[in-house]
Amino acid sequence: MTWQVVKIIAIVSMTLDHAATAFLTQPFLIDRLGMGMVASARILGIMHILGRIAFPLYAFGMAQGCTYTKSRKKFLQRLLIFALLSEVPFQLALRGSQELEYFSVYNVLFTLLFGALCCFIWDFFRKKSKVWAAILPIAALILLAEVFDMDYGGFGVFSVFVLYVLPKKSWKLLALAALVTWLYGLPAVMSMLSGGSYFDSVLKWLCALSAVGILALYNGQEGRHNKFSQYFFYAYYPMHLLLFYGLSQWIGPIEINWDDVML
């Protein structure tokens, strides 16, 4: 499996998750498509569950990009530009910000950008044999991701960094399995022990773990690659968010009398 195939899987997973958040709401499925309450809730739940595959693939890909990029400056510039371009579409489509009072840094491209900065900071001090000096700026970036409430927060930044510093693919996959288990498996186990509802949590955990299996099939080859495909995978993020926001505005608000909805 080439990296192009892995990226397509990540895009499909992300798109399903965002579609279920942005415009394929439960009122839409019930009112426009005639679904029942249970069926509509289950479909949206499945879309969100399948969406858990995306971020582990993106985190691994960012770590790989930091390793093999020919120009770190251009790599960071490209990430920053598309992160800035994506913020307003992200807030409109996923955060429900109809009126943007101020610019913020929430979307996942900022998370990946901070992760890349951690990787390059680590390398800078490692080459000077002063690895200890990298701890503070890396910790600061992880903390800032939490303070700014970025997508996946400090966990996301830390994930990119860990996947970068580990030298072998097998170690990276083990670390990724541990990270997704911490993020999704632990809540599932806690819900199970407390007697709460844990079925969806377990499915999210399994879907996130399936990303590890997908990466295990990755053969290290880039696949068909050109400038268009390189920039398309960056541009797709803000483009699909703008499209989903436009669809949500076209659909408009849907009023439902929940007492009349069939199960």
Dominant shape: globular
Structure annotation, total helices? 11
Low-confidence stretches: none
Strand proportion, as a percent range, falls in: under 5%
Q: Give the terminus-to-terminus CA distance.
A: 42 Å
Mean pLDDT equals 90
Query: Largest sheet at a glance?
Result: none
The count of DSSP E runs of length 2 or more, i.e. the number of strands, is 0
Q: Roughly what percent helix?
A: over 70%
**Could you give the order of the helices and strands?**
HHHHHHHHHHH
**Rg to the nearest angstrom?**
20 Å
Given helix and strand content, the structural type is mainly alpha
Structural features, described:
By secondary structure, the protein is an all-alpha fold. It is built from eleven helices and no strands. The chain has helices at 3-22, 26-31, 37-50, 54-68, 72-95, 108-127, 135-147, 153-165, 169-193, 199-217, 227-251. Helix 3 packs parallel to helix 10 (199-217). The radius of gyration is 20 Å and the shape is globular.
Concise account of the structure shown:
The protein is mainly α and 263 residues long. It has helices spanning 3-22, 26-31, 37-50, 54-68, 72-95, 108-127, 135-147, 153-165, 169-193, 199-217, 227-251.
Q: What's the helix and strand layout?
A:
Layout: H1 3-22, H2 26-31, H3 37-50, H4 54-68, H5 72-95, H6 108-127, H7 135-147, H8 153-165, H9 169-193, H10 199-217, H11 227-251
Helix pairs in contact: 1-3, 1-4, 1-11, 3-10, 4-6, 4-8, 4-10, 5-6, 5-11, 6-7, 6-8, 7-8, 8-9, 9-10
Search tags:
mainly alpha, 263 residues, 11 helices
